[in-house]
Design goal:
The protein folds into 3 domains: 1-38, no CATH class; 41-121, Ubiquitin-like (UB roll) (Roll), CATH 3.10.20; 141-285, Cytidine Deaminase, domain 2, CATH 3.40.140.10. The strands form 3 sheets. The protein has a 6-stranded mixed beta sheet with strand order 9-8-10-11-12-13, sandwiched between helices. By secondary structure, it is α+β, with helices and mostly antiparallel strands. The protein has 8 helices and 13 strands. It is 26% helix and 28% strand. It has helices spanning 62-72, 123-132, 137-144, 158-162, 164-171, 202-216, 233-241, 255-264; strands at 10-11, 17-25, 30-38, 41-47, 50-57, 82-87, 109-114, 182-188, 193-199, 223-227, 246-249, 267-273, 276-279. Helix 1 crosses helix 6 (202-216), helix 3 packs parallel to helix 8 (255-264) and helix 7 runs parallel beside helix 8 (255-264). The termini are far apart.
């Protein structure tokens, strides 16, 4: 039986990864070297003194993540309802807090103050639980009743869309060095980048990118969201809630995502790779 393994925790300069000793083994040799691994930590989100979620995330853009999560999951009616958003620290976690999960680490808590009428403690969780407990079009229609349709005249050229995967990769800073992260980026119809976010979770990356715009007061009805992760109904729900008209993924969409996007007026594009893409819903936004 092997002995327990311990290593001194060393943070990399990017504050999103650790330096970790590994044994690198190749066919004819092996060596001990330092490698980088992406950091995973809890983030507690508190609204008006009530804890609504603990997210496992990669450090960085905590305010954006909290704002994006709360609005796109329905806990906060709209970004204008947020009176104050406070991240309790940007330093490294205190010793012993790295994996505690209680939100008390130096950078593991975000507090929001929201006007009473704008705080809906059960709206987001109820909607998610409804869909996750069932399957098929009936549940999509039920959740659709709580979501307004996307209203946007955005149109984008196919050639520009086909280049967005590379454009997003060119903006990444953590993934090329460490790996283990998803990315989400917002673009204008011209192809100009607005923001890129990276995180260990694809939902977190999307919330960070959307949250950036929500906190800046930047409109989303003329933006295109590109993500490296699978397009699930949750991704579509997030986009619809903020009136974002086009969601593009490098991966596949799910059946519920396609149905919900079709019902709510969202243009959903999948398999953006290798010079091709599949337009699943509302292709009129893709100019021929």
């Amino acid at each position: 039986m092997g002995e327990g393994f311990e290593a001194e925790i060393k943070y990399a300069s990017d504050s999103a990864s650790l330096i970790w000793p590994i044994q690198r083994i190749r066919e004819n040799d092996q060596e001990q070297v330092d490698d980088r691994v992406v950091i995973e930590e809890p983030l507690e989100i508190v609204i008006n003194g009530q804890r609504v979620a603990v997210l496992m995330r990669m450090p960085g853009q905590e305010k954006e993540l909290a704002a994006g999560f709360c609005v796109t999951e329905g806990y906060v009616r709209r970004a204008d309802d947020i009176l104050l958003i406070h991240h309790c620290g940007s330093g490294y976690p205190a010793s012993g807090d790295e994996g505690a999960g209680d939100g008390m680490g130096s950078r593991n808590r975000v507090e929001l103050r929201v006007i009473p009428a704008g705080f809906r403690p059960s709206a987001g969780s109820d909607a998610v639980r409804l869909i996750r407990s069932g399957c098929g079009a009936a549940e999509v229609l039920i959740i659709s009743e709580t979501l307004p349709p996307v209203v946007s005249d955005l149109r984008a050229a196919p050639a520009m869309l086909l280049g967005l995967g590379r454009a997003m990769r060119d903006l990444q800073s953590i993934h090329p060095q460490v790996g283990g992260t998803h990315s989400a980026a917002l673009f204008l119809a011209t192809g100009e980048a607005v923001i890129l976010a990276e995180d260990i979770g694809r939902h977190n990356a999307v919330d960070k990118a959307l949250g950036y715009c929500l906190l800046q007061g930047t409109r989303l009805d003329d933006k295109i969201l590109v993500t490296s992760g699978r397009a699930s109904y949750e991704m579509v729900m997030k986009a619809v809630r903020v009136n974002l008209p086009m969601l593009v993924t490098l991966s596949a969409p799910t059946s519920l995502a396609v149905q919900l996007a079709g019902d709510k007026g969202l243009t959903l594009i999948g398999y953006l790779r290798g010079g091709r893409m599949n337009v699943y819903t509302h292709p009129w936004r893709v100019e021929s």
